[in-house]
UniProtKB/TrEMBL annotation:
The keyword Nucleotide-binding does not apply. One of its GO terms (biological process) is negative regulation of DNA-templated transcription. Coiled coil: none annotated. One of its GO terms (molecular function) is DNA-binding transcription factor activity. Keywords: DNA-binding, Glycerol metabolism, Transcription, Transcription regulation. The keyword Ubl conjugation does not apply. This is Glycerol operon regulatory protein. Residues 55-239 form the IclR-ED domain. SMART domains: HTH_ICLR. May be an activator protein for the gylABX operon. Residues 1-54 form the HTH iclR-type domain.
């Protein structure tokens, strides 16, 4: 049941859960109530749908420390940089922000600054949106704070941010253009551990003209490359365990 809740949008009705697992509704409801009592599952009061709870998400986040996530992701990050031609960052949540645990330079001769250890805003970066989308507790805490405006495109309204996070869960990746820095864009996808819990994100960043098409949308080829890299890191974590 927890694996089911970790997949797709992360929001499932009782009927969907029961049907997917071949359980009677009463049986499924009993299991859900047990999981709710230990805060492994939460129920949205507005929609009555179920999702992973904060206790389980925090347990999953502690599963990997920053050094371990970095060491297991290095090869795939290097490959992504080579294929995309862009700089690559791997991040995880720390103290209300995105902690960059690994950074691969753009494969050209331009002057670049190593970003390992940098703290990036959750609401204005693709990495941050991925982390927010799959952690309801973190998302709720972020929406309770003032969303700082960094550029004229930064999302500062909580309702607008929630709509974006719903879209991230639906499509499986996040993007932003000039929300964090003018002229810059980024694309990211989730890294998961066994069971489907999201513990980090991998993404690329670069100029808007390189990452986005003429309509301002992330280029489909780059989105596929980022998602493939995230899936490869996830697979390596699953295989290790």
């Amino acid at each position: 049941m927890l694996r089911l809740l970790a997949r797709g949008s992360g929001h499932h009705s009782l009927t969907e859960i029961a049907d997917s697992l071949g359980l009677a509704r009463g049986t499924a409801h009993g299991i859900l109530r047990t999981l709710q009592r230990v805060e492994f599952v939460e129920q949205d009061q507005a929609t009555s749908r179920y999702r992973l709870g904060a206790a389980l998400l925090h347990l999953g986040t502690s599963y990997l420390d920053a050094n371990e996530l970095r060491s297991r992701s290095t090869n795939w990050a290097d490959t992504l940089a080579a294929r995309s031609g862009q700089e690559v960052r791997i991040g995880m949540h720390h103290d209300g922000a995105v902690l960059v645990v690994h950074h691969v330079f753009r494969p050209d001769d331009s002057v670049q600054t190593l970003g390992i250890g940098a703290m990036l805003p959750l609401h204005a970066t693709a990495l941050g949106k991925v982390l927010l989308a799959y952690d309801p507790d973190l998302s709720a805490a972020t929406r309770r704070r003032e969303l700082t405006s960094l550029t004229r495109r930064t999302i500062t309204r909580t309702q607008a941010l929630e709509r974006v996070l719903t879209e991230v869960r639906s499509q499986g990746w996040a993007g932003e253009a000039e929300e964090y820095m003018p002229g810059e864009a980024s694309i990211a996808a989730p890294i998961r551990i066994p069971g489907g819990l999201v513990v980090g994100a991998i993404g690329i960043s670069g100029t808007v003209d390189r990452l986005c098409d003429s309509a301002g949308r992330p280029r489909a080829t780059l989105v596929r490359q980022v998602c493939q890299a995230a899936e490869s890191v996830t697979t390596s974590l699953v295989d290790e365990n």
